[in-house]
Amino acid sequence: MPALLSLSGLGVSYGHVEAVRDLTFDVEEGEAVGLVGPNGAGKSSTLLAVMGAVRWSRGDVRLRGQSLRRLSPQAIARLGVAIVPEGRHLFQRMSVQENLALGKLGRREKRSVRIDDKWVTAQFPAVVDHGSRPAGLLSGGQQQQVAIARALLSDPDLLLLDEPTLGLSVPAIDAVFDALAKIRALGVTILLVEQRAQRTIAFCSRGYVLSNGSLRLEVAGGPDANLGPLVNAYFGS
Questions:
Q1: Average pLDDT, stretch 20-25?
Q2: What is the pLDDT of residue 24?
Q3: At CA 183, angle to CA 179 and CA 184, rounded to 5?
Q4: According to CATH, what is the number of the domain 5-234?
Q5: CA-to-CA distance for 43 and 11, rounded, in angstroms?
Q6: Which one of 101, 113, 132, 150 is separated from 94 by 20 to 30 angstroms, measured CA to CA?
């Protein structure tokens, strides 16, 4: 049985600049996998390639064995993939509820839906407390709640998150990781890009360290993970 997500020899270039080089790894159904590394390592480009937002120059990306080459982001979303992009990308003048309604547009026709309005409102207070307010008036942490909730309302099998704790306070960071734990408990597979390497590896079942667009190291995750190899790979020692 193929992995839920499989990258094989992935390469992403912007003009003459290679952002991702020969990247190969799998993400199994139900896993939480972290991508960590310094700025410019190719983490965001990897997520954008999976989502079809950038085209890859070589290699392949497969979802349950099906190649995603030449598919649009909308088509990939309908296959069960959702992304929470860096910077959240909410429509600032639209209300929270209007932003959330956009998340349902990519929902597939299924007999049962794991993540619906009731589940989202129970997990994300900002959705309840500020539903009629323009999204741009919310705090950073509240906006991140809305961005994650919007992605979840498509009821994805695979959730991609790009720096979901960027610029947030410590309590807001804790709230994001608490929400991710509940999402994972529902069986949603997570591919998480984060600068907070140690916390990411502790949360995930395993992680990959990227540097200069290449895979540097695979590390086992969990709260008792050995972080020595991670630190050495992250800082290039």
A1: 96
A2: 97
A3: 120
A4: 3.40.50.300
A5: 12
A6: 113
